[in-house]
Amino acid sequence: MAGETPTDLTAAAGVNAPPSDFQLFMVTVKLFFGISYLSMPNTFAHCGMFGGIVLFSIVIGMNGITMMQLIKTAENYHCVQSYSDLGLRVLGPKGKSVIDLCIIVKQICSCISYLFFVSKQLDFIVCQSSGRCVGNHPYCFMLVVPVIIMSSANSYKLLSYLSIPSIIIAILGMFCVLFYSFSELTLGHTSHSDLRYFDLPSIIGRIGMAMYIFDGNAIVVNIRAEAREKKHHYPSILKNAILFTLSLFVTFSTITYYVYRENAQPIFTMSLVPLNSLVVFILCCVCINALTSYPVQMLAAFKIIENSEYFAHPARESRLRGFLRKIGIRASVIVLTTIICLSVQTFTDYINIAGAIGSVTVAFVIPEMLYLKSFGDKVTPLKRAGCYFIAAFGIVGSTYSIYYSIKKLAMGDLS
What we know:
The chain is mainly alpha-helical. Helix content is 74%, strand content 0%. The radius of gyration is 21 Å and the shape is globular. The chain starts with 5 loop residues before the first helix and ends in a 5-residue tail after the last helix. Residues 1-15 have low confidence and may be disordered.
């Protein structure tokens, strides 16, 4: 996105005014409000009730710090438009290339999880209602066309019009889940085994997943750029979005784990059996939310690919040809993510590994490099030590998370 002006970004949506504070808040919440929160009750089942709260609070706190560092670093340079652009200003062309690659990998991993989730839910509905269980692969390919259509959006302001209703739908679905869960608890249909409170090896082993859920680093600089004259509002908007989603997700996960305990499935909604009209409504809510998260996450990666030298547009290009070129590139990436999605076996462990591989660089290492290099001697020894600690925590935690999930899968444990 380097070289674009803020006006270019909003003009793509056909609107000159910057997004409102509410739109900025909602599209930021959407960064975290995909479908990963549905793996959190299962994580609580492994880590324990208190262990889950500790895990997500610590890791998300660190994610929040690194996102704020990126914004502060961007404020140190004139008219920074994206994470990629910031990398170019601070680390030069080679550093930008590394950051671009990390962002593309991270965002593709995120979108694979959305496709896997929705296709699994569709198969679950058909399988439970008709007995025809064909697996999620056919549904993955069915999703390609609607995802391509939604991914044609070219600005976060435009995507906010998708984000606002989808978040409302998702929150409605969460309340329905809680109502259904308490109903099942009252009827005695759920587990009565002892609660697990704290399991340290599992807490360390799920760090990658916690990184994944609240890693908005690849996009927050881009959203801030679209805010234009409201840029100074964005740090407080980001902080409020993090606190809102963390409180909502921890409350949801604590209650659902208390009700279902060890029976909380890797995709929690698959714990909601037997299938009835309320469960179908819940599944529709979470699927809509997941699909609308795809274009929000992938826009940053699309921009990087489209502006690279390999896909640079001609000096004179008609609007129609430019649009077709953009759709062709985005459709190719979407088909690639769909093909990769077919190899995913289990939701929670995929998120754990994807978070460990993708988020460690984008959210824990590179932000510290940019911050330290930009502010140099102005960084106090205590803050410098904190930067090194966050980077080391990310590297060690992600390494163990990969080991933990691979070992678990090798033992045939898909729980």
